[in-house]
Amino acid sequence: MRLVVIGVVWAIAAVAGVAIESDYLVSVATAMVFLGLWAQSWNVLSGLTGNISLGHSAFVAVAAYVTVILQQKGLSPLIGGVLGVAAAVVLAAIIGAATLRLRGPYFTLATLSAAAVVLSLILHYSDLTGGPSGIAITFAHDAPLELEFTNVRAYYLIATALLAAVTMFISLIRHSRLGFYVAAIKSSEEAAAAAGVRVALVKVTVFCLSAAFTALGGVVYVFYIGFADPNFLSGLTLSIQIALTAVVGGTGYLVGPIVGAIFYEALDAAANAAFGAAGGWDVMILGFSVVAIVLTEPRGLCEMAVRLARAIADRVQSATA
Amino acid sequence: MIFLQSIVNGLLIGGVYALVAVGLNLMFGVMKLVNFAHGEFLMAGMYVAVWLAGLGMLPGLFGIYWVAIPTMFVMAAVGFAFYLLLLDRAARFGESPQILLTIGLSIGAQGLAQVLRGSGFKLVPNPINGAAIHLGGLNLQLGPAVAFTVALIVTIVMAAVLRGTRFGKRARAVAESVETAEMLGVDARRVYLVSTSIAIGLVGLAGALLIPYHYTFPNVGQNFVVVAFLAIVIAGLGNVVGAVFGGLLMGVMQSLTASYFDLDLSTAAIYVVFLAVLLLRPQGLFTRGRRTL
């Protein structure tokens, strides 16, 4: 049932994206979808386990760079992308295994540092990566097998399809054996281990899944933007943005990260329209709205909406009774 | 000689890291909170100090340093408000919301600085910038040397405050166990309030010591705070005096790797050391057992 709903929503979003004439609106919508995809992927790890990762940009960057570098050497991104995602999963397995015992701020700082190592390696090996100036992808014609489209709507469609697929996958995981294991681990690692859950294996698996989904977004994103920019792709700013998006929407809900992405990009577009993109207004409003949300309802916008709906339903009920 | 000079440079850079790290670790020690907005308080301190220095400077080589004490008190007041308005309210939600609150505040404050002061780099012309003393073939940059000296004084004062004063004893009791301390009549929230004010005051002081030789801009805090995070984990989270050595160590490591390897890799080297400490000795290098503060 859930899968059908996700499919229908995806179909509507896809048709709407193609039907919209304004390129600007499509670019805002595409940004929403990528951010939603990354926040949704982040939530697989951090929402399910409760440990906040500030290193997810590393998976975006590794997958994007592997794909782009192989593409420059003549390999189709459809194959290169698979290798890029695989590289991100290997990285995630290493980080995941290393940070198994860490919780709270220790986990957050460890993931942040791992991403910083990835960034400085990308900057250092400039023969391969172009260093701080990055790699530009140039093309003039449509080549679907090369992930090259002159119409940006193609990337929007691919990204929405990925987001829908990842969301379906997560909704399946939640009610699977793995989902129950993770829920058990979140409430108490010791109790879960005592009940026979292989805690280490489950935690590393969840980390790898989260990285794989994030990396998929990275592969498509870099071709959409047409430029591998190290400071964006593997920067702390992107990691923070991904985490905050998921939290603002609500980590406890399947649609939470997507709601967060819509909120974030809509605010961003509104702030840019009102004050111009250069002034810092967008960052300020987003940052302080996170503060406001944490202080009023730390479980996020979805929780607020649910509470509001309940309050209205109660009113209606007591009025009719 | 290059070796000695690198060590000296590193120690001097490390002075500011130490001042940033001390407050960060005081807050972690008593509140178990990693303040991800700490760098933005450094940035705010720098803007306050630049504004004060723009009003006028005392005569003489060290004339710009009059801004240090007023900046420290302004930022301590900011810290006071930060605890009462934000941290105190978020405390009841637990650990993750507190981390997220400080992350949100961090990027919000960067945006605010850009809105109010623009994204340009600011530096008040002053005689400290570029000045150096020569000591037996070694070259000591004057600005970092002052910051380093102040960092050492602050460490000694902080160590004395934590050992000898009533606040220090209460803070150590709260760091050990909030429940027990409260049972014995310690008002934990007051300890939190004072600790936050001290921590933000110290990071403001660090900002004032930076402005003679370092540009001020909205994201300036990030460079310092990430290194300070690493310093406090390496020293041991919550170990206030250890944080100073952690900060100095980070400066020396950065300087040595930059001299002998490559500047990009110097960042990577620091993180690798940090990850190794985090994984192999999570209580930190300078902390024995579970003792904190």
Protein described:
The complex is a heterodimer of chains A (321) and B (293). Chain A is mainly α and 321 residues long. Chain A has one domain. Chain A has 15 helices and two strands. A two-stranded antiparallel ribbon of chain A has the order 1-2. The longest helix of chain A is centred in the N-terminal third of the chain and has 27 residues. Chain B is mainly α. Chain B has a two-stranded antiparallel sheet with strand order 1-2. The mean pLDDT of chain B is 87. In chain B, helix 1 packs parallel to helix 5 and helix 2 runs antiparallel to helix 3. Chain B has one domain. In chain B, a hairpin with a 2-residue loop joins strand 1 and strand 2.
Helices, strands, pairings?
The complex is a heterodimer of chains A (321) and B (293).
Chain A: H1 2-19, H2 23-49, H3 57-72, H4 77-98, H5 104-124, H6 126-129, E1 135-136, H7 153-174, H8 177-187, H9 189-194, H10 199-225, E2 227-228, H11 230-233, H12 236-249, H13 256-275, H14 281-296, H15 301-320
Antiparallel strand pairs in A: 1-2
Chain B: H1 2-31, H2 38-55, H3 68-90, H4 95-117, E1 132-135, E2 138-141, H5 142-164, H6 166-176, H7 178-183, H8 188-210, H9 220-235, H10 240-260, H11 263-280
Antiparallel strand pairs in B: 1-2
Helix pairs in contact in B: 1-5, 1-8, 1-9, 1-10, 2-3, 2-4, 2-8, 2-9, 3-8, 5-6, 5-8, 6-8, 9-10, 9-11, 10-11
